[in-house]
Design brief:
By secondary structure, the chain is α/β, with parallel strands linked by helices. The protein folds into two domains: 148 residues, HAD superfamily/HAD-like (Rossmann fold, 3-Layer(aba) Sandwich), CATH 3.40.50.1000; 106 residues, 2-Layer Sandwich (Hypothetical Protein, Haloacid Dehalogenase-like Hydrolase, Chain: A, domain 2), CATH 3.30.1240. It has eleven helices and 14 strands. The strands form two sheets. It has an eight-stranded mixed sheet with strand order 5-4-3-2-1-12-13-14, with helices on both faces. Strands 8-7-6-9-11-10 form a six-stranded mixed sheet, covered by helices on one side. Strand 12, helix 9 and strand 13 form a beta-alpha-beta unit. Helix 4 packs antiparallel against helix 6. The longest helix has 14 residues. The radius of gyration is 18 Å and the shape is globular. The mean pLDDT is 94. This is Cof subfamily of IIB subfamily of haloacid dehalogenase superfamily/HAD-superfamily hydrolase, subfamily IIB.
Length: 265
């Protein structure tokens, strides 16, 4: 297999634990990084990806953050797409009605109203610490800067998420990607961007999506995996993801991405 670019999702894909990659993965990335660009593609904020870039020895390569809403290379923003302040305020009013908490992300800033089991998991998994303040305060502060959100995380119970999901589809579908990562979490990103569109923005002259091999596990990876030259799912991926790829490798805890690289690249 001869590809110019390798793109990989992080959580549930490249990471063999909740917040790190295996030594085997580091070794395989070091073996190939001089002949293909390795680009990390994630829903994470920049600082929760940069430490992994450094561990893999690819810190000079771009990173695709927030499912494509923010693309950074060598500390510089290549592209930047936010949900508007008015849109975020409108969503907050709906969430408040259903007693759903919001985590707001912009650049390297993560704001939540209070700690919880979910927030503590996120702190551990991403090695990031949030700002604890009222969502109203955050939104007012961002409005004065005319800034919106790169990502919103909705946190509630299954019943509240079941109730708000059809409302999101009905009222916000044209402006937002709403992706339910599990029964109690919904991730929201700007509609105009995706992991695939961000990859396209990083193609150099003479390169096409056919030059890209990509790895993923979840619904927000499907568009990327279907449209690049070769899509690979880890064994722990959603069934819908495994159905659309060319190959399924070992699960993430078994360093499936690294094993595929060793066997085929």
């Amino acid at each position: 297999m001869n590809f110019k670019i390798l793109c990989s999702d992080l959580d549930g894909t490249l990471l063999s634990s909740k917040n790190d990659v295996s030594d085997f993965t580091v070794s395989e990335m070091n073996r190939i990084k001089d002949r293909m660009r390795v680009i990390l593609v994630s829903a994470r904020m920049p600082k929760s990806m940069v430490y992994l870039q450094k561990r893999l020895g690819i810190e000079n390569n771009p990173i695709i953050c927030y499912n494509g809403a923010l693309v950074i290379e060598n500390g510089n923003e290549i592209s930047n797409t936010m949900l508007s302040p008015s849109l975020v305020e409108n969503l907050y009013e709906r969430c408040h009605h259903y007693d759903i908490k919001m985590g707001l992300y912009r650049g390297d800033e993560w704001c939540v109203e209070e700690t919880s089991e979910r927030v503590e998991k996120e702190i551990f998994n991403t090695k990031a610490t949030p700002v604890f303040e009222s969502t109203t305060v955050t939104l007012n502060r961002w409005k004065t800067q005319n800034m919106g959100a790169h990502k919103i995380m909705l946190m509630g119970n299954k019943a509240s998420m079941d109730k708000i999901t059809p409302l999101l589809d009905a009222q916000f579908q044209k402006d937002m990607h709403c992706y339910r990562s599990n029964d109690t979490l919904i991730e929201i990103a700007p509609k105009s961007v995706s992991k695939l569109s961000a990859i396209q923005s990083l193609l150099r002259q003479g390169e096409t999506l056919g030059d890209v091999i990509a790895f993923g596990d979840n619904y927000n990876d499907i568009d990327m995996l279907k449209n690049v030259g070769y899509g690979v799912a880890v064994a722990n991926a959603r069934p819908e993801v495994k159905n659309i790829v060319q190959k399924v490798t070992l699960d993430n805890k078994s360093s499936g991405v690294a094993q595929f690289i060793k066997d085929h690249l």
